[in-house]
Amino acid sequence: GLDRRINKSSKKANPKFNNKRLRKSEIDDLVRGIGLQPVQVKSSKSNKVSNQSNDKQQAPQVKTTESLPAMSNLESPSISLQQQLDYSRNGHTVLRSFIPQQTIEQLKSEIVPYANSQTLAAWKQKVEVQLADSADEYYRQNSQSIANGLADIEACQDMLESLGMANGDLPFLQFFNTWRAKDSNAPTVRQLCLSPYLAQAASILMDSPTVKLYQDSLFHKRAGDGWTPWHSDSRMAPFDTSKMITFWIPLQKVPTPENGGTGLLFVNYSHSDFALPYWNGAEGKEYERLEQRYGSGSIAHHMPMSVGDVTVHNGWTLHSADGAEFVEEGEDRYAFSVTFVDGNAEVRADALLENNQQTKGDMEDVWSYRPWVTQVEPRTSFRHALVPIVWPVERND
């Protein structure tokens, strides 16, 4: 069911958009009706926001894609009106052949070896998240120090097992913000994350004149890993905004679900379901009966995916992924994601408290934003080197 697994036969795109091709004039009217402009967004010096500078920590400065020939030729992303409409209405869309295969291959050759060198940190992150969600107050209050004190992967696995999470229950290992790591030896990661190509695409789809880079992540779903539960990314972020967007970039082909594909599954329209969090909070029982709420027919996916295809989803869109229990050893799935946020998004005052706990939301992203979130003033427009403005180009940090 929606609250655990999805019937394979229900994993198909919304037929409304597959069986009827809208005329351009119809699409234009629909786009205008939801507040978007049916034109290609261009670089503009207008609509600037007044941000105060708070760059207390230096980040790698990469301005161009000159050393990425495959990217430097892509001056402006091609985002169709249909894709804008799909994203606005459904909360997700797919961009076929959006990134050159050469760039994906180079990205994978750089980031996978770096991630392998950071595996212990990824396991510690999983431990901290589980400790922070524990019923034991001591664990919750000391989750960071306990996780950091674990000496090796085996100790992390033992701790997770004691908390009720066996190795096979783990959905993936996650590696945050390779673009910031000066020792990563991954220039393609930095250049892709900071590229005007991705940033302008985010601006178009979010309808945001100014865009900041929030984070990048590598998701390593190993053979035998479990399913990724239904979740929305914005519950894990420190911002109070409806404008957050993630580009999910598989680093290899993704087959259909029937053939073992573990690409993302989306719940159509869930990003606009304001009633779910409003009436049920962050942990209400409605999250355990999503199938009854939405119906199995609301599930959509964009598999199969070729190298270079990218899915894009709103920060509030519910999504998940099947487990890799039946994937053969050595056929691990790697996916790279880049998340952007509206340039005016403000940080919540309760994003990170003294004991590293949130009063609301989930703890998955704390490792990502802990280095900078206490250095900015909550509820203000802010500037920080670790959350740089990437669009428009003339405003970038």
From TrEMBL:
Taxonomic lineage of the native organism: Eukaryota, Sar, Stramenopiles, Ochrophyta, Bacillariophyta
Residue numbers spanned by region Disordered: 1-24, 38-74
Bias (Basic residues) ranges: 7-23
Entries under PANTHER family matching the protein: PHYTANOYL-COA DIOXYGENASE, PHYTANOYL-COA DIOXYGENASE DOMAIN CONTAINING 1
Keywords: Dioxygenase, Oxidoreductase
One term of GO molecular function: dioxygenase activity
Keyword Oxidoreductase set for record: yes
InterPro entries hit by this protein: Phytyl_CoA_dOase-like
Cofactors required: Fe cation
Protein name: Phytanoyl-CoA dioxygenase family protein
Native source organism of the sequence: Skeletonema marinoi
Low complexity: bias regions: 39-58
